[in-house]
Design goal:
The chain is an alpha+beta fold and 460 residues long. It has 3 domains: 128 residues, no CATH class; 196 residues, C8orf32 fold; 83 residues, Immunoglobulin-like (Sandwich). It is built from 17 helices and 19 strands. The strands form 5 sheets. Strands 10, 12, 14, 15, 18 and 19 form a 6-stranded mixed β-sheet that branches. Strands 8-5-4-3-9 form a 5-stranded antiparallel β-sheet, with helices on both faces. A 4-stranded antiparallel β-sheet has the order 11-13-17-16, with no helix packed on it. The chain is elongated. 36% of the residues are buried.
Length: 460
Amino acid sequence: MIATPLLGVWVATSLAAYSNARVSWVAASGLLLFPVLPLAWIGVSEWRRRSRGEIRPHILTFGDRLLVRTVFLAVVFLVVLIATRPKVAFIALSARGDWFLGDRHGKVAEIVRRGAFKLAGSLEWLYDATHPNPYEQYKPQNQEKPTPPPAQESESESDSKKDPHDTTKTPAKPKMWPTSHAVHPIVTNIPPEEETSIESVGKYIASREKDPMLRVKALHDYVADRIAYDGPAYRAHAVPMEDGDAQQVFSRKLGVCAGYAQLLVALGKASGDEIVYISGNVRTTESAIDGDSHAWNAAKIDGIWYLIDPTFDAGYLDGSTFHKRYTSDYLFTPPHVFAVSHFPTDPAWQLQGKPISRGDFIRQPMMQPAFYARGMKLESPDRSQVTTSGTFDIRLQNPSTYLLVDYRAHGAGSGTRCRVDGFTHAACELPAGKWDVLLFGNDTSSGNFDYLGTFEVNRE
């Protein structure tokens, strides 16, 4: 009788916290579920009995009737609440299901928090049912499901297992990430007559680059450099099938993420490199904190899998206009960094020993690879969305990057500068509303600052 209404109130208040509505009002309305409406129902039923002159005793006791009516109303409320917001319920519970704990992090608070998020995770099936990934259909028909990659040992774990008395010199591991932000010279200098087909491009690159890491980089660079993103089709939610077909994308030099990923797979086949197609969700500055549907790749090099996203490394959209800007941020990106923005449908392709859940993916702050490449570490906040009643603070470990921080209305374009104290602290005095707080960094105090991450902030 108590737990069922509390469950309904928890869902409703989590939705309120996520959308920056007044949680206190929603919580107070929970009194309608118990005891106001159940008692009113009993009162009306009793009045109608008496008005009809019924004198038979009740089959159920007063407590039983109160219990049945309370549970019935609470279940109806819960079903209607979730059914009318199926796309948001799981996200809100996963992101803000612990709102009532505030900043508490004691032993009891953490037990309650884990329980709340575990309960939220039970609704993931509803999220999956209402969020079909349109790029699943572009997966190559002849692609077999690859063997899930083993948990890859990190360099620190490997070093910790090394015998301190072993004087054998260990060969230095090549630095794979971040890689050079320059297109491979083979790609820039490839003769036009060698670009007549996917096969000719793949074989040309394979014949001139024997290092497997650099060869896959060249394949990635070709796709990222040559293909433009079909912004108008993406914005219109009317992506033609050819935008996801490798041959069509190669010929038209135009596609969406599925086309970029399929073309890289096809080039890998031509060059003799094992590259697979992966689909899932990805987070950007424009997406909600759960992300949008997307497709990317993984390449197996010398027995080790590496994650690659040629679409993200090709450029960016401004409205429906694509702006070419080559980077290599998402080339051989460490799995724990890649997992901040990419969540594959098959958790094995996180390439992590312990894959994170979708709830974990939604909760983690939306930081960019450049943030980690600069050696920075976020201390607070530890969530993608937070609520504040005053100043919003960002605290981080930062070796030497100059910072700029601004806030703008959620989804809007122009921003207002926040106060930055040295390299490790920023403070934003936010008006009431829902805001995006953006973090930028640069090696010097002036010039072009790289985008490093976003926080959603609800100011009460």
